[in-house]
């Protein structure tokens, strides 16, 4: 099959293959066709000189809110993904069983960017999240809709990758872990992983972890006090270590209130890296402090994570969490997505959710994306 596109001469960093080399990447039929030097172009091949760039598998943002127009927190997926190098946006609970059909028809299906979703166990998902209105959907147990959630998840397995629930004082009030237990029932019924949001107690970080199963995701994992994974002495809590040992996954989910440099420094100093780095992008944090996926990745690069580990946490590790091995890789036969980035040198001001600033010396910048084997620009 003739190549549709060749990215020529970039530094290809693909942790799924332990690859870091100057080489070419070719695409055909919407998939990665070949990786190697001197790949031969056909007369109709689009050949791009990317020798100034780093080429990675298409970035996966495991925590986004892109039900634009359907929820007050949703942002436009195509605009966001083009600017932040994301080729797969995973929406985490914007929609529930009562409004997922609209999300699918009006946003997901027309989108050129791949959108996957964790379905909220609450009937209308995260419906009351804005600058003026803040209603914790999990606080009202009458809105929990496990029967319909199971039906909708089962009927939309092509797009729904798991079940979402938000617990904590701001999202579930005094209901504690009850919404989490309901969501776990649904996840068990449909055989899918669960993503749990956590904010202020109740419930505690430890209570949530104790319920999570292998393959489940705790998002906002490096959040500030209270409900932080680190002890006052700067060590990692035993419950956190035990959860990782049994296969629970830890996701960043930066957002407006869920990432602190203090927590991250303590976790990284103990060798506890996040499994996945995600932005939790939504209307209340797209103008700061999260901004986008590459900015969130840059913060970890500036805190000492190796570039390959940062890329892994936004590609192959996210694909594992999604149980979508065709994503997050440039192995031939994988989905034909790639992201081009540069790492700028200088002084860059980064801010966390509690107002602490970090002056970093590097910044990851998105320079372009390939989606479905084609150089992509939104309309």
UniProtKB/TrEMBL annotation:
InterPro entries: Amidohydro-rel, Deacetylase_Atu3266-like, Metal-dep_hydrolase_composite, Metal_Hydrolase. Signal peptide: none annotated. It comes from Bradyrhizobium symbiodeficiens. The lineage of its organism: Bacteria, Pseudomonadati, Pseudomonadota, Alphaproteobacteria, Hyphomicrobiales. It comes from the Bacteria. Residues 54-210 form the Amidohydrolase-related domain. This is Amidohydrolase/deacetylase family metallohydrolase.
């Amino acid at each position: 099959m003739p190549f549709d596109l060749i990215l020529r001469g970039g530094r290809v960093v693909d942790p799924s293959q332990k690859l870091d080399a100057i080489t070419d990447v070719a695409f055909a039929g919407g998939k990665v066709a070949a990786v190697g030097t001197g790949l031969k172009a056909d007369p109709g091949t689009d050949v791009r000189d990317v020798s100034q760039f780093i080429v990675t598998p298409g970035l996966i943002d495991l925590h986004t809110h892109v039900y634009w127009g359907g929820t007050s927190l949703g942002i436009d997926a195509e605009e966001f993904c083009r600017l932040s190098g994301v080729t797969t946006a995973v929406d985490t609970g914007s929609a529930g069983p009562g409004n997922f059909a609209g999300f699918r028809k009006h946003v997901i299906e027309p989108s050129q960017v791949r959108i996957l979703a964790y379905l909220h166990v609450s009937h209308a998902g995260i419906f009351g999240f804005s600058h003026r209105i803040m209603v914790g959907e999990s606080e009202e147990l009458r809105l929990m809709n496990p029967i319909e959630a199971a039906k909708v998840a089962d009927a939309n397995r092509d797009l729904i990758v798991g079940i979402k629930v938000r617990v904590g004082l701001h999202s579930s009030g005094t209901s504690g872990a009850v919404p989490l237990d309901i969501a776990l029932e649904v996840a068990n019924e449909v055989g899918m992983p669960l993503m749990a949001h956590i904010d202020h107690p109740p419930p505690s970080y430890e209570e949530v972890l104790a319920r999570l199963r292998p393959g489940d995701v705790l998002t906002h994992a490096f959040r500030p006090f209270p409900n932080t994974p680190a002890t006052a002495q700067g060590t990692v809590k035993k419950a956190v270590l035990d959860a990782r040992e049994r296969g629970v996954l830890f996701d960043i989910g930066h957002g407006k209130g869920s990432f602190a440099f203090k927590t991250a420094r303590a976790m990284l100093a103990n060798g506890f890296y996040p499994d996945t780095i995600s932005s939790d992008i939504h209307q209340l944090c797209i103008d700061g402090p999260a901004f986008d996926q590459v900015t969130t990745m840059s913060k970890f690069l500036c805190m000492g994570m190796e570039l390959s580990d940062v890329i892994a946490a936004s590609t192959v590790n996210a694909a594992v969490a999604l149980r979508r091995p065709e994503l997050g890789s440039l192995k031939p036969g994988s989905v034909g997505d790639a992201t081009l980035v540069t790492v700028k040198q200088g002084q860059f001001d980064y801010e966390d959710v509690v107002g602490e600033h970090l002056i970093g010396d590097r910044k990851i910048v998105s320079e372009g994306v390939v989606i479905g084997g084609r150089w992509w620009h939104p309309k």
